[in-house]
Amino acid sequence: MMPMTIPTLRPRLLTGPLLCALMAPAAIAQDPAAVDFNRQVRPILESACVHCHSETNQKGDYRLDTAEEASKTLDDGAGVVAGKPDESLLYTTTVLPADDDDIMPPTKDGPPLDKTQTDILKAWIAGGAVWPEGVKLEQKPRMDFVKHIKPIFETTCVSCHNPDEMKGDYDMTTKMAAFKMDGDYGDAIVPFDIEKSSVFVLVNHPADHDDLMPPAKSGGPLSKEQIEMIRLWIEQGAIWPEELEPLIAREATVVRPPNPDGLELIKKIHAFIVETSKEQTEADMKEYANVVPKTGANYTMTPIPGGTFMMGSPETEAGRKPDEGPQVKATVAPFWMGKYEVTWNEYLPFQTTPVDRYKDGAKKTPNPDDTPADIVSSPTAPYTEMSFGMGQDGYPAIAMTEHAALKYCQWLSAQTGHFYRLPTEAEWEFACRAGSATAYHFGDDPAQLADYAWYFDNSMEGYGDNQYQKIGLKKPNPWGLHDMHGNIMEWVLDQYDPQGHGSVGAEAVNPWVRPTTLWGRVAKGGSWNDDPADLRSAARRPSEEQWKNTDPQLPKSIWYLTDVKWIGFRLVRPLQIPSPEEMYYYWNSGRPEQLAEELAKGK
Known about the structure:
The protein is α+β, with helices and mostly antiparallel strands. About 25% of the residues lie in helices and about 10% in strands. It is globular and about 80 Å long.
């Protein structure tokens, strides 16, 4: 493909939010003819810019993921002026003093760019800002040497590669020594080129390779996470701060204690639920209002009678997709379902706490007085404000992983003595239909949808921009459930099968396609961002790995979906209380790799 050149733009002033994406690590070349976009410029933009300026997150109404978008003219300045770096804010804001409010990237996002990085940006723009045709950037985690790389080198490498040891005639304690050229294994660290960097090549060898570093007898191989950090660091320019003190060999962090949120905890929660829940038959089930004991937030549960229905859609239904069939005669047991989608009022106190946590949600400093609810794994601090400015009081909670939603169910169960979980797809569709067999619970005519749902055509009312709306503003379905169609899409428990419902058989009792992979989980109901056909009772959508594209963490968080502003969940409470082992499976099925490991241990 032929490369394209960013056209010259008229000067304008970019604001801080817009420029948050216009910087990142760079290279060691100042000759415009020597700068390679894919090898040098691209890693800078992908690691420091795209998370704020992409198709799904256009801060300052600006994107920097394609040449066409990057070259657009805005009202208040020019990010890139081909051939003129001194008129390009992509360059000029990166060379501001570190204490300047307008420096990019903002200091809250990390250290300023290294001079070698800003020189790369300058040289690229001076050479015409050539951007290869068809290249679309993706967000990558930005590597900080002090935060990400220094701990790896100090705990796994420096003990053997220092001025006193010099194994392999190589010293890693300083930048000058570590960037050694023509050593025993070739060039040690070549910025932007992992294939020529022996430091990366050696740590990336198979575990049984003779040249693996560190050797197996010395603790090798490194973890996949550590190897990935080194790879990204070199690809982004191998920035090593000049003023840094020499590295010192240190012991690796002591292995943390196991997460106490296991089967023994769930047995305690189960006993509390058995003692507390009094309803024995469907006749005992009544609608009830309750509060979250730890926060006082209100929620309401509506009884759904057991019954049989045709799950999926007939071939004649308008808007039908192949994965909605074949239709299955499904029977579900009675349960309660949340009258409304779970709100931020309910969920935020679970998501955001002052407690330091490991990445799996366990408390780093447990308290002897912790209750079972205190011990349940809870989210780490979010990377950004997760309502994305759309409102919290009375609005549905969004952008959590299925694992996070399930852990909220466990947390609430531990406080109330009622067993809560997500609905199965069959339970969700049965409750949504409320006895109907039509495309929507009110019939087949999408012209009536505005009375019952928020969707793309009406979700900007009063706001000027599409977004979710407060719960309960539209008419409920015949069973009293609000927003089953639209507002936000809702998690269910099932694994998505692109072949449809055939795997459960023509007739099924309490069907549930148990999850086996992290991605490809079913979401139902459609959202404020969808068209009417996507809001039908039978419509379904699988989760995708791209839902975490802009998550800058490595590894990516198990709690947040930073690219999905339209998914949340609704509570279900089955009349029949499951066993502790079944509860464990429900509440941990959002992390199938962990679940498989735990079950293999017999936990």
